[in-house]
Amino acid sequence: MTASNASDGDFLAELLAVARRAAAAGAAVLATRDGGVLAGDGTQENKSSGSDWVTEFDVAAEKAVREVLVSERPADVVTGEEEGTTRVQDPSGFRWSIDPLDGTTNFIRDIVYYATSVAVADADGRWLAGVVNAPALRREYWAVRGGGAWRLDAGRSAPRRLDGPEPGRGAAGSALLATGFSYDPGIRAEQSRFLPGLMDGFGDMRRLGSAALDLCLVADGTHDAYGERGLNEHDFSAGALIAEEAGCWVRRPHLTSPLDGGPSDAERLAAWTCAAGIEFSGRFPLD
């Protein structure tokens, strides 16, 4: 089938199945991580600063994801965090956006909030299916356009359908906001100054260090809202669809496509990615 068939339910189910297998392959690599902090053992190198690592696991997990996609969808384009864009001679019109290890610093420090994220879009840029597989949590999230969002925990025979945060927490003063901070000290200082205003209406805040999982935690109602500046497409591609299909308000940034070289740092750092229950829709600044 081609991009013109993207509304076909069976075809979307096929795409989702591929996405789940690909994400599971990446997560299986991450699951081989032994206990203890990895920093200092020679398995990582500096990506952009002392707090933003790239490990051998990143590369191995992305390779595992790509092997599934190339085997099952050889005519699709793939864009990924570590290996960039893989183009094909006669493209199908579908493109996969993959983040083999979202939450890399967590992974290095043995903090459980990390995951493999895989999503697919059609030629018009509509996200059709997305999966976030978190091996340390033993949890998988997924969504397909028009088919809802789901969470499957290890040991359970059936997934549960997600419907976003419980209404009314804002009025009760118990709403939970999730956000993130830039690795750049100047941007981080600016974000810190802005934080008190952002916290209006929320009882507390969390910073978990994985955008993909933060979006999924809005979808399953753990967080009431999430907003962060400076994300790349692969950070939010799957998680934003999952939150959207759970009935949440979602705002994705309009970034230059990876096919066109991706956004500049200035473009990326100026843009917000947001998801929330309906009562908190529109609470974040416009890009």
Q: How would the blueprint of this fold be written?
A:
Layout: H1 9-30, E1 44-49, E2 52-55, H2 56-72, E3 77-80, E4 84-86, E5 95-102, H3 104-108, E6 115-121, E7 127-134, E8 139-144, E9 149-153, E10 160-161, H4 169-172, E11 176-179, H5 185-198, E12 204-206, H6 211-219, E13 225-229, H7 233-245, E14 249-251, H8 265-270, E15 272-276
Parallel strand pairs: 3-5, 11-12, 11-13
Antiparallel strand pairs: 1-2, 3-4, 5-6, 6-7, 7-8, 8-9, 9-10, 13-15, 14-15
Task: Tell me what you see in this structure.
- The strands form three sheets. An eight-stranded mixed beta sheet has the order 4-3-5-6-7-8-9-10, with helices on both faces. Strands 12-11-13-15-14 form a five-stranded mixed beta sheet. The protein has a two-stranded antiparallel ribbon with strand order 1-2.
- The chain is an alpha+beta fold and 287 residues long.
- The chain starts with 8 loop residues before the first helix and ends in an 11-residue tail after the last strand.
- A hairpin with a 3-residue loop joins strand 3 and strand 4 (84-86).
- It is globular, with a radius of gyration of 18 Å.
- The protein has helices at residues 9-30, 56-72, 104-108, 169-172, 185-198, 211-219, 233-245, 265-270; strands at residues 44-49, 52-55, 77-80, 84-86, 95-102, 115-121, 127-134, 139-144, 149-153, 160-161, 176-179, 204-206, 225-229, 249-251, 272-276.
- 31% of the residues lie in helices and 25% in strands.
- The mean pLDDT is 89.
- It contains eight helices and 15 strands.
- It has two domains: 3-156, Fructose-1,6-Bisphosphatase, Chain A, domain 1 (2-Layer Sandwich); 169-280, D-Maltodextrin-Binding Protein, domain 2.
